[in-house]
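Reviewers of the previous submission asked for a worked example of the structure-prediction workflow described in the proposal, so we include one complete record here. The input consisted solely of the amino acid sequence. No template or homolog information was supplied to the procedure at any stage.
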Amino acid sequence: MKKYLFAVVLLMSSFQGVAKESVTLGVSLNILSLPVVVAHEQAFFKKHNVKVEVHDCPTGAKCLASMLDGKVDMATATELPVVLAGFKRQDFSIVATFATTTNDLKILAHAKANIKSPLDLQGKRVAFVPGTASQYFLDTVLIYNGVDPRWVTRQAMPVDEAVREMVEGNLDAVCLWEPYISIIREKASSKVSLVPVPRLYIETFNLIANETMIKHRPKDIQRILMAIKESIAFIENNPKASAALLEKRLNVPRHLIEAVLDDYRFKLSLAKSLPRTMDGQARWAIRAGHAPAQATQPNTLDLLDPTFLLAVDPQAVTVP
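From that input alone, the workflow returned the following C-alpha cells.
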C-alpha cells in the first residue's frame, strides 16, 4: 500500500480545475451500471468538474474491448473480461468496483426442455454470451453440480440473439443477466422458468481505465469516482427515481427493474476478495481453453490500481 501513498497525496491536492477534454466511457447496458447512469443523468460528473461522454455497449466485454481498441478511455465491466484480457496485455487497470451482486446471473429454461435442476442441462442446448460472466457462471454451476460442461451443448451468441432465440423457443435454456432474464420471462410467460441454482459467485462491476488515462489524466479518474460516490448516495436515498433513470436508459419497463433492484449492492470498493475471484477465473480460463495456448496466469494484483480510490475513500480499499 505504501507505494501508492505519494500518488495519493498528489491526487488529493489537485481537485481544482476543469477538464479541458471529455473522458469517453464505455457503459454496459445493464442494471449494474446504475451508478454511472445516475452520475451522468444527474450531472454529477459536471458537478465534479469532469466532462464524460458516455458510449453504450451491449456487454461489459464489448466495453472493455472498445477501450483496448482505443475507442474509449475507460470502461465498465465485470472482472471476468479483465482477467481474459490480462492474459494478453496489462496496459489497463480496475480502479474501483462500484457494484456487487450474487443474483444477477441466472439460468432460464424453456418448458419444452423439462429442465428442473442443473443436472437436467445435460444434452441440452444452452446459450451464453462469450467472454462475459455468463460463460463463467454457466460452467461454474455445471461443475458444482457434477455436470461436465462438455456434456452440454453450449451455444455462444450475442445477448440480443439469445433473448430472441429463447423467446421464440429455439433454445432449451439460456444463462444471462438482468434485465434480460426478466425481459424473456415477461415475453415468454409460462413457457419459461428459472433453474434453481446456489449463489456460488459474487459478481463485481468495475470501472477500468487505460494506461494513458492512468498516467496522464489521474485527476479526471478521481473526479469520476467522486461523482459515482455521490450517485451511489442518490440511489440509496432515491431508489424509485434511480429506477426511472435506468428505465429511460435501458428502455426496459420500470417494474422489471424495481423487482430486482434489491439484489444489487452499490458501493465503491476494492476488496481483498476481488483478486482471489480473479485468480480462480484465470485458472478456469486455462483449464477450459479460454486462455491463449501456453499462457501464463496473470498476477491479478497487477490488474488493480487502488491509487485513485485511496484518495476518494481510503476505507473502501482492502486489497494489499
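The longest strand covers residues 92-101. We consider this example representative of the routine output the project will generate in years two and three.
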